[in-house]
Amino acid sequence: MLINAATRARRRTAAAAVELALLLPTILVPVMFGIWEVGRLVQIQQIVENAIREGARQASTGKYTEDEIKQTVKDYLTTAGLSITDSEGRENIVLTVQMATPPASGTQPSKATYDVSTIAQNDLIFVDLSFPFKNVRYLASNFFTTSETMLNAATVWPCVKDSPVSVPTTIPQEPVH
Hey, what's the torsion of the CAs at 103, 64, 60, 100, to 10 degrees? Predict the structure, then answer.
C-alpha cells in the first residue's frame, strides 16, 4: 500500500503542472493584460482631469483668453507625455471652455462662449475635454477598449476675478465737536 500512495502523489503533481500549463495562457495572461490596461485607463483619466482642472483654475482668474486656457490644457497633457494628435499629426482632442452667470436656484446655467472681457466675479467657468484612449493605450488589441474609446472629463469653477475697488484720494475732514 505504501508504494501505491507514492505513485498516486507523483501522478497528481504532473496533473497540476498540466493544468497550470493549460490555465496560464487561456485565463491568467488575459486577466493580467486586462488589469494592466485598466490601470493605464485610470492613470490617463487622472491626467486628463488634472489638465482641465489646471485650465479652469487659470480661467477663474479672469486674466486669460480662451486660446491661452486651451493651450494650458494642451501643454499639461503633452508635458505628461500624452499625444494630442493622431497618426497624421491632426489634433484629435475635443476641448471647450465656456462660461455662464450663476443660475437662479433650481435652474441649470445656460452656457455661453467664454469671453475674458465680459466675465465677472462668481460667473461659472466650464472646461470639458474628450481625449481618445487610442493615443496612449499599451495594448494594440481591442479586447478591453475599442479604438473609439474616449476619456471624458469636465469641471466647473467660479470666477474669482477681482472686483474693481475705488479708493478715495482725499483726506476726510475732522468731525465737528
Answer: 10
Q: How far apart are CA 15 and CA 31, in angstroms?
A: 23
**Cα atoms in the 13 Å half-sphere on the side-chain side of 49:** 6
**Cβ–Cβ contacts within 10 Å for residue 21, how many?**
10
Entry pTM = 0.75
Q: Which residues of 152-176 are buried (b: 16+ CB within 10 A; e: fewer)?
A: ebebebebebeeeeeeeeeeeeeee
1-55, pLDDT tens digit by residue?
Answer: 556 766 665 556 677 788 888 888 888 888 888 888 888 889 999 999 999 999 9
Q: Closest Cα to residue 93, out of 85, 82, 101?
A: 85
What's the start-to-end Cα distance of the chain, in Å?
121
